[in-house]
Specification:
alpha/beta, two-stranded antiparallel sheet, TIM Barrel
């Protein structure tokens, strides 16, 4: 199994923004030093807990500070950007990194972001996302002149002068394009089905039970079958989990429950409830919303405890899901920097090597 990270990031709103951004940079640099295979960086515009509005700028900052770790947009929120901007900015990063870039695409699920950009209903945004991805792929693989007309965008470049390079756009370093991923939250997810149809990397969220993770993979495989693709190899699957390791189970739970680790889940619960998606937390759809307590979320969806306890829990998760290729550690706020650094080191050097 490989080890990577998914960085939303998660910092309490009262934390100094600059300090949080510097911590995020240090986290990725440390992950690179520890041999993490990849880091996916989130993007939101109106969330104090998740305050990176431009993940491509963040990636550009950490590129020269790292050596081996692959860096990915996790995700580029397609309805909130013009497809040309996404295409050329990610292609430029791909060149600057000499092919160390992954590209995650998604719709976004934050109502205040939708309001800020004056976006339509979520179903329409889903259609905008699919069209936007298709436009990006065309821009990455088609030399001008071209004329792409969709329902939401009309992209054309026809008055070109190839002799002098006038009318040329940047295309990716990796051919035909960087690896593409889609984030998956809901159980029977249309994103999972589409990712399977197209062979994209499935990125499963950290806020769902193992039973829902199984639905993610089933939907992904159904999409692959629908498109006539070979049965997917589970090594492509990324599964995210919030993990905290300490010297004793009691110490781990005390730190997790009484700090920003638990605070982040109180925030996420509120966000998910506002989006009417409480079922994503549940092991049983019939479970009442009021039973989805903070204690339930931490015990069922997070990995908390000693090294041995975390190995046991992750082995259980691996067996329950049927296996996956990369574990993505969620980046949490460093309320105790030394303990979090020790947690990362233990996870990379002792826990993951003990897994299948």
């Amino acid at each position: 199994m490989k080890l990577g990270t998914f960085m939303m990031p998660l910092h309490p709103p009262e934390k100094d923004r600059t300090l949080g951004f510097e911590e995020d940079i240090e986290f990725v640099v440390k992950a690179d030093e520890l041999g993490f295979s990849e880091a996916w960086v989130g993007q939101h515009h109106t969330l104090a807990w998740e305050p990176i509005p431009s993940n491509d700028v963040f990636i550009a900052n950490v590129l020269p500070r790292t050596k081996n770790i692959r860096l990915g947009s996790g995700v580029s929120i397609v309805p909130q950007h013009h497809p040309v901007n996404i295409a050329v900015r990610l292609a430029y990063l791909d060149h600057l990194s000499r092919g160390r870039i992954n590209c995650g695409f998604g719709q976004g699920g934050v109502p205040t972001d939708w309001e800020l950009f004056d976006l339509p209903d979520p179903q329409t945004q889903g259609l905008m996302t699919v069209e936007g991805i298709d436009m990006i792929l065309k821009l990455w693989q088609t030399d001008p002149p071209f004329n792409f007309k969709g329902d939401y965008h009309h992209i054309k470049l026809e008055n070109v002068d190839p002799e002098f390079g006038i009318g040329t756009i940047v295309q990716p370093y990796q051919k035909p394009h960087p690896p593409i991923a889609m984030s998956i939250i809901r159980g029977r997810s249309r994103a999972a089905f589409m990712a399977g149809q197209r062979g994209y990397i499935p990125l499963s969220t950290n806020i769902v039970h193992a039973s829902t993770l199984n639905e993610h993979w089933d939907s992904y495989c159904a999409g692959a079958a629908d498109a006539g693709r070979p049965e997917p190899d589970r090594s492509i699957w990324r599964v995210s989990r919030s993990i905290y390791i300490d010297e004793s189970n009691d110490a781990a739970w005390e730190r997790a429950y009484n700090g920003p680790f638990a605070g982040s889940f109180a925030y996420l619960r509120r966000l998910v409830a506002a989006a009417d998606m409480m079922n994503v937390f549940k092991h049983d759809p019939e479970m009442p919303d009021e039973d989805v307590t903070l204690e339930y979320i931490l015990s069922k969806l997070c990995i908390i405890g000693t090294k041995d306890e975390c190995i046991r829990r992750l082995q259980e998760l691996y067996e329950e899901t049927g296996g996956f290729g990369t574990l993505l550690m969620i980046a949490h706020d460093w309320d105790d920097k030394e303990r979090w650094l020790a947690c990362m080191e233990t996870l990379a050097n002792e826990v993951v090597p003990a897994l299948p």
